[in-house]
């Protein structure tokens, strides 16, 4: 049997209670280092303290460059990506957000797959959108083992569903069976056939993702320039030449899988509509001020012109407001 000794876990909304159960049930002699990304953004996190209290394995936010060891839990700190590097070291990265989050799951999974291949077990838990889908696909493409929380068992099933669509899984389990399945995977449980991926592109993508500055020519090696723009910075997006999952990257480092990119563009569209509504409201206010001026000077013709502007602006603003309501989930 091919034993595995690196466990990487990612989750978002709904994953907190699963991590609590996991901490309570993982054995103290766990023959693997555990790395976790929970979407916390820039908010302070007491998750290491809680997981240490809940279970028998010590948990911490690692220092940059710290060596990882079996039987310990390492949790990505707020606003920093957690990466695995060669020589069993952990890196903290403050580069661009991926899938609109930092820390993100994909950078951890991708770095684990790139450097440790078949030694890795990746786990995708409950969460919104699709962070972790590309990362789990990379793990399975490099010979690692993939576990996905049963979507019906999740508070939010989007991340597990996206992972299954992009990567498939070697096991799909509920929270109650997760520890048992992790132990089986570490002990060498057989893998299922992974979805084919372009491994050379994955390796290039992993190297590009860890670069602070990326030249367009480097992105040309892993993707095709797209007419779409980055919803974070407005830069050109490259569509990665691998469809599991469909994903994009810009030269400043922002990266998106399809669901996250769609969400970003929806927010850009909504902001644009609100900007238009604000401009129309200002137009209406200005027309009313001019109408009052016309009234004071006795200019009836100008009063009628300003009223027409007020009516037109009000109609347009109401139309845009209805558009926002119809687009709301």
Automatic annotation (TrEMBL):
Catalytic-site annotation from UniProt: 12, 39, 131
GO cellular component: cytoplasm
UniProt domain CheB-type methylesterase: residue ranges: 1-189
GO molecular function terms attached to this record: phosphorelay response regulator activity; protein-glutamate methylesterase activity
One biological process term in Gene Ontology: chemotaxis
Enzyme class: hydrolase
Keywords: Chemotaxis, Hydrolase
Keyword Lipoprotein: no
Assigned EC number: 3.1.1.61
The protein, known as: protein-glutamate methylesterase
């Amino acid at each position: 049997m091919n034993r595995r000794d690196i466990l990487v876990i990612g989750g978002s909304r709904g994953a907190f209670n699963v991590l609590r159960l996991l901490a309570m049930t993982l054995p103290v002699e766990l023959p693997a280092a555990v790395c976790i990304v929970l979407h916390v953004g820039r908010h302070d996190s007491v998750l290491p303290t809680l997981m240490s209290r809940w279970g028998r394995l010590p948990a911490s936010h690692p220092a940059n460059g710290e060596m990882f060891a079996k039987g310990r839990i390492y949790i990505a700190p707020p606003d920093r990506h957690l990466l695995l590097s060669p020589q069993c070291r952990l890196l903290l990265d403050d580069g661009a957000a991926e899938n609109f989050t930092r820390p993100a799951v994909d950078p951890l999974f991708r770095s684990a797959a790139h450097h440790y291949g078949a030694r890795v077990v990746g786990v995708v838990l409950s969460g919104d959108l699709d962070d972790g889908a590309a990362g789990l696909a990379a793990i399975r493409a490099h010979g690692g083992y993939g576990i996905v929380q049963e979507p019906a068992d999740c508070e939010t099933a989007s991340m597990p569903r996206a992972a299954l669509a992009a990567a498939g899984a070697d096991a799909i389990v509920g929270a109650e069976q997760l520890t048992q399945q992790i132990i089986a995977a570490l002990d060498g449980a057989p893998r299922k056939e992974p979805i084919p991926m372009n491994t050379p592109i994955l390796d290039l993508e992993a190297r590009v993702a860890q670069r602070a500055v990326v030249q367009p020519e480097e992105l040309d090696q892993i993707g095709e320039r797209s007419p779409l723009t980055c919803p974070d910075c407005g830069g050109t997006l490259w569509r990665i030449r691998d469809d599991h999952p469909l994903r994009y990257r810009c030269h400043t480092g922002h990266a998106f899988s399809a669901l996250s990119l769609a969400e970003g563009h929806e927010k850009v569209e909504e902001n644009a509509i609100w900007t238009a509504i604000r401009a129309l409201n200002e137009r209406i206010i200005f027309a009313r001020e001019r109408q009052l001026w016309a009234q004071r000077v006795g200019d009836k013709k100008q009063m009628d012109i300003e009223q027409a502007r007020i009516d037109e602006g009000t109609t347009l603003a109401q139309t845009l407001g209805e558009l926002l309501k119809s687009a709301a989930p």
